[in-house]
Amino acid sequence: MSSESEDDVQALDEEGEQEMEEGNEEGDAMDGMEVIEEGEDGGEDEELSENIHTLHEMLLRIIEEPHLAVIEMTSLLNRIAGCLERAEINFQDNNPDPGLDDRSDHEISQMLDLVSSHTQELSDRLLPLITGTGSILGTNDGRLQVTSVLRAMHAVAIHPEVLPFEEEEEMSISKRLIVWIAPKLPAISSSSWDGPHPSVQLETYPPLRCFAIALLSAFMYQSEEVVDMVAQVSLHSFLLSRLNAIIENPPREIYDVEPSTEDGFQEVLSESQIATREMVYSVQCLSYMAEYTEILAPIFQEGGMNLIFWILKKCKQRFLLAGCLDLVGKLLRNHKKFASTFVDAGGLQVLCNLELTPLHTGLICTCFIACTTFPEVMEHICLQPDGNGPFMLKRSFECLEGPLTSQHLALTFISACLSYRILAETFETEGGLKIVVDHLQDLLNVFDEFSDDIQSEILECDLLVLRQFFRQAFQHAFQTLQLYLHRRQLTHATPTSTRRRSSLGTVTPPPPILGNPMGTPGANLATITPIPSYKHRDITTQAIQHQLEVLGTMGTTSLTILLHRSKWIDLVKQIEDLGIVPKLVQSIMQAGSEGVAHTEIGIVAIEALEILTLFPPFQKMMLQFVKDPTRVMDFEDPGDEDFQVENQVENQLENQLEMQVEDQNQENAPAEDQPEIQVERPAVQVENERPMGTSGIGVLLQTSARENLFEDDLGSPKQVEVEDKKSSVNGLVADLVDAALRVIGQCVWGGPLPTAPTNLLVGPKSKLKVNLTGKVSEKSEMDAMYISKEEIPIRSQVIKVIRENSGLGVIMSLLKYRSQVSHADQIRYHAVLGLLGLVNADPTLPGLLGKHHDLANVLPELIREPVLSTNLNIHEKFVNAALPLIATITGTSQVPSEATDPALLKIEKAEIVAQTIVQYPPQELLKLIALHLENSGFHETVKALEKEAKMKLGTPVNSHQTLDSIVTQFLRDQHTACSKPIAVLPPFSLFSQHKCPIPKQSEKAPSNISRRIAFSQFRPEFGGKFGKRKHLKFIYSKFRPLPSTVINSWSPSNATLRRTQDLFACSSIFLPSGPTFPEGSLLVGNYNGELKLFGNHFSQLLATWECHGSQIWRLAAVNQNGGNFLLSSSPDGEAHLWDLTKMGAPKLSLENAPFCSFNPIQEQFITTGDDRSIIYSTESGEYIRELVGDNSGMDDCECGAAWSPTGELVLSGTRLWDPRVPKTLHSFDRFTKYGCGTFSPTGNEIIINSEIWDARTFKLMKTCPALDQMELSFSGLGEVAYAQLRPRARMEATPGKKSPLRTCFRTFDAADFTEISTIDIKRDITGPIGIEKNDQYISIIDNRGGLETQCRIFEVGRKMSAEEEDDEWEDVSDDDDDDDDDDDGLDDIDDNGLFLSDEEWE
Asked: Which residues is 769 bridged to in the sheet?
């Protein structure tokens, strides 16, 4: 060793366990090596460090001493190999899961890093010894040296990332190794391969052959090209012959269960150890060639089968046994002949009798899985009398206690077994359902979005087993149902009649069975035969979907028979006891996380639910609330005495107030007579409140709304090409959404989704069925016999939960689904089926949907053509379901065919019609005239007409057309074309075009403002009818900014402020004049958390208060009835209650309250955050009540809760509350996931996004598309509503996705919410609109460009002059120019760093 390397080693010894940094000049030779710091296991760390130092010293000697003696070189290489082999064995011994190959925290990893740092030097030093001439093998020392090189390279090459080879280099070395292994192979002797020295007989030197096989196996593991080459020269035949020769006199290590750690890893190996290793490496080479057909003949003809059984039965050497199991598994998977022979020879019994060690458990399961590759082999196994199939299944249950990878493989085998009825029965009788469910629960307890891939795969396999078991049970029951109905048809069939009568009236026989039990269409009932239990059944998704479609054509009758005449009736109780449905729902919740693995988990779980939710008991379970495993909630101990007292007082108050609300005839007691009971806020919910969690239906709705599918506005379809739309949703998410829709549809329909042509129930209690073709048939006798009494109530509850969770909006948005083109038609079809089921079961929905966003007009656009032209069959189903939906919501019997035609087809039809010459037989017209005259009593005239026409003009045969009906339809079509048709009309004329008279409103106020004012002197107020509305439109369509009151939320005299975005305004509110504040007072909040009070008509800064640590984005104030209170809040949830007369410190500080508002009489205020609204007392600041949603994530209250004008009701999101009781009064349907809710000034209407609801009947009155995504605030008199873009849209807008309304606000007539005007201020509006109570001014926070925002005051009803408009446009243009500057519009700064307003520049 050189002196430099000796100094390095000495330095390491002196530094002890201190870590050396990479690149240290004194340790360049140690680059890439880590030294472990001494911890609690100081002794182990010291030994580890010593091993690494020793390895490094040996590597340096080989690299830096080129003239080492052969014997010394051989010794060093063998010691290096032994060191690496020992470390690898130590890793295998301590690795809890052999399937997980993570060596990062083990000694072998540090050793490999050390070797990797010298890869190039080692390659240059060692490869010439292998690729050189064969003369080196002529001496014993040379053979020893080459053998040591092969051994050391194999110890490293099993980790390909450490010692990589080029492809050509690898092939060259592999050829040389094959020559050394079997120099007499015919393929080698006849080729031009470089062979060994002619005088050397390599077969007499086993160590060289052993490690040549070892290194070749490492190359075969890395390269398929090497495997191809080995198979071409038939090396497998030589290896088999060598293995058979060895087992004739097996080495003693074959029978050692746990050999000594040092044994086999010393410098010199014994003949017995060499033979054992040769067997291990040879079996590995054979396993890499197991996929090739060339190996099959030698296996049978050259003793390969006997060799395999010998190793499986007698071998105890774990690595040899593991290699043999790997070989068997690959042969079973790739060769049916071998699988059959192995099974007949009793191989499965041998596998099942092996000990389940951590190394072998997964390999045994792999062999089991390989048997399922060929259904014929598995059917043969199921038929064996010794019960190999059930024994394998039981053994796999035991594997669930093994390592994670073994659990995954065992579950994979179990799921494959469930395709065979006999094994599914064994699974059931052996308690497999409980075993898998318990395993699933244990995994769910620790599973989260950070779980690794193997945990995700195991969870998916657990769910896969449940899905396959339910599918097998369903398919068996489906076959039983087919056979039962077949026998019933044969029993009741008569040759003379196909109909019979009963007390229920005329009924039809059961519908024909479509398809055979395997799901193949076209089978005849007479050919239906039971499938033997040992036969493989097709329970793939495609087959099950086909059978569900067949079941959908059979109606409720068949579903009830399927439940009561199969084992499902017994499974219901077992599934309920095991809590399978909640566990499946929890698994679906995990699908909300990102990643393919989580999405696949959700798909499998939903597909399992798809089978269960066919039956009402499981539909009922989907209504139960399930705890979300992703949420952590704190609950107080219910046994705590203080909590019990508080809860008792709370319940007493609730009961008292509920009695007062329900008794409408009794007057409410005065407020002063009510006992003032103050309750501290409890950490748990009070009685009768909605439980924490989400229902199964709610989870499915959340799943259906993934990837912002809830965004599209149904009322304004975007005319874009699907191919040009960039989708962020992959196919797996689309599968997840589609599966969730199918389950929702089944819960809505109370069974399988109907398939056209089918019977669709109209109304929840109707006895008639309407099919998709419009025909009507009465309810059958079997329906009456088997119909479940609980079915209708369950459907009603399902629909209620769907509507409470904004399900209508989710499903309607999916009608416009385009994210994944290949799935779009399927998702639309299931969405329209869900809507059809909803409107058929809930009589209130047709009228509601008919008023929303013109759904009846959108559907015809969708049914014209499919999204993808290859999905015509799916689109046909969509059309058959959409037509009755349109008919239901519009109240019409049919939809004009023109409405469903594509635009090009309409043009073609119009051209054809225009060019067509209309001709008809004139005799038919004469017959119609004669018939009309006959019916009118002109009999003689008819005779004269017949005589003159020289033909008999009798009644036309099979004709329902009359001249009267033709004329009536002609006039009705004219009446339909009227813009405003009326019901009572004078007689029509056949000689002139009909037009309905337009009513003249003589009392209507003039449109001109001057004439209205003049008319008001002698007409009713405001100059006539609708005069007030026209006044409002005139006033609230004009706004003029006050140029002298541009407020930047700072004062020029305040020289301490610096140039920062925290200085800009972000909220404002007018303060009513009174003793505290003069007229024209305005509060402005800024990004620095300051409140600034401006007076003297908004031109003078009166006061400044530091109130928040971040921006103040919401302000609410009340200055009446002696109160001077202010609420301020920030987006991060910080909120304060202030007394404006004492602004030193807040009266109350709150968290998680980004939205706050007072009730009309300022006695209480409400805060909103995280689906919770909390009411506090204004005077005392004490907690009063908490209004809690269902935590479903679908009840997003984006603009905070709103009080009714009387303060008796609260609207939080879509839920209406009475603050006196904890129950929700009503939950409104939500058609979009965003939107702000508020009451109208009269309190009679509730506005949620663009929907306007009647607050008394909770019915949808109308929709106003102009209100979509807008936040409303009302004028002081409540006559006009101001609307601006919702807060989240303002905050989340990006340059590429900015709404065109970001610079606009709108005004509406509060009486009917007709739009008055849209005012564009040319700058982004970034804060809420402030409204002065006398309706003279409004304040708007806008963005001047860059980071600068300002508060501007606008006069209401004043129009800007032409000069002011020009100045405004110039100002905006300047702002736009500033945006292009590099300093983001921060040029206009004075010497003190303050932003100057326009007036100061002037």
From this structure: 761, 777
Return the pLDDT at 445: 85
In 868-1022 the beta strands, taken as DSSP E runs, fall at: none
Task: Return the SS3 of 1149.
Answer: strand
Which CA distances in Å does 1380 have to 1373, 1375, 1377?
Answer: 11, 9, 5
Amino acid at 1402: E
Separation of alpha carbons 959 and 680, rounded Å: 81
Q: How many CB atoms lie within 10 A of CB 303?
A: 17
Instruction: Report residue 871: phi and psi, to 5°.
Output: -105, 40
- Collapsing DSSP to helix, strand or coil, 662 comes out as helix
Instruction: List 1319's β-bridge partners, or say none.
Output: 1305
Residue 877, token pair as written in the block: 């189903």
Instruction: Please tell me the distance from the alpha carbon of residue 304 to that of residue 236, in angstroms, as a whole number.
Output: 10
Q: Token pair of 640, please?
A: 């705590």
List strands edge to edge, sheet with 1172-1177: 1155-1158, 1164-1169, 1172-1177, 1183-1188
SS3 assignment, position 760 = strand
The answer to whether the CB of 828 falls within 8 A of the CB of 878 is yes
Q: Would you state the pLDDT for residue 437?
A: 94
For the record, the structure tokens of 176 come out as 């040389």
Please, which residues have CB within 8 angstroms of residue 1023's CB and are 6 or more apart in sequence?
Answer: 1005, 1006, 1011, 1012, 1013, 1014, 1015, 1016
- Measured CA to CA, the distance from residue 365 to residue 367 in angstroms comes to 5
Per-residue pLDDT, 1274: 93
d(C-alpha 1062, C-alpha 1117), whole Å: 23
Residue 126 is predicted with a pLDDT of: 86
Outline where 1183-1258 has alpha helix (H): none
Q: According to the model, what pLDDT value does residue 1123 have?
A: 62
DSSP string, 1054-1075: -TT--SSGGGSEEEEEEE--SS
Whole-number Å distance between alpha carbons of 1073 and 740:
57
Using CB atoms within 10 A of its CB, is residue 57 exposed (0-12), middle (13-18) or buried (19+)? Answer: middle
| pLDDT tens digits along 838-868 | 998 888 888 888 877 667 678 888 888 888 8
292: region left, alpha or beta (phi > 0 left; psi from -120 to 50 alpha) = beta
The torsion region of residue 620 among left (phi > 0), alpha (psi -120 to 50) and beta comes to alpha
For the chain, the 3-state helix, strand and coil shares in percent, each to the nearest 5, are: 50, 10, 40
Average pLDDT over residues 1197-1211: 86
pLDDT for 761 equals 37
CB 332 within 8 A of CB 339: yes
Tens digit of each residue's pLDDT (9 = 90 or more) over 238-262 = 999 999 999 988 887 776 654 444 4
The secondary structure element, H or E, covering residue 824 is helix 821-841
Angle of helix 453-492 relative to helix 432-446, nearest 10 degrees, comes to 140
Handedness of CA 540, 542, 548, 553 (dihedral sign): negative
For the stretch 582-628, pLDDT in tens is 999 989 887 665 556 678 889 999 999 999 999 888 999 999 888 76
Task: Tell me the angle at which helices 119-131 and 107-116 cross, rounded to the nearest 10 degrees.
Answer: 80
pLDDT in tens, 1342-1393: 887 666 788 888 999 988 877 766 666 566 555 554 444 433 333 332 333 3
Q: What is the pLDDT of residues 960-996, one digit of tens each?
A: 678 888 888 888 888 888 888 888 888 888 888 888 8
Under a CB-based contact definition with an 8 Å cutoff, are residues 253 and 318 in contact?
no
Alpha carbons 627 and 691: distance in angstroms, whole number: 9
Torsion from C-alpha of 1240, 1243, 1249, 1253, nearest 10 degrees: -130
Residues paired with residue 536 on neighbouring β-strands, in sequence order: 420
Across the chain, mean pLDDT equals: 76
Residue 534 · residue 379 · CB < 8 Å: yes
Confidence of residue 48 (pLDDT cuts 50, 70, 90): low
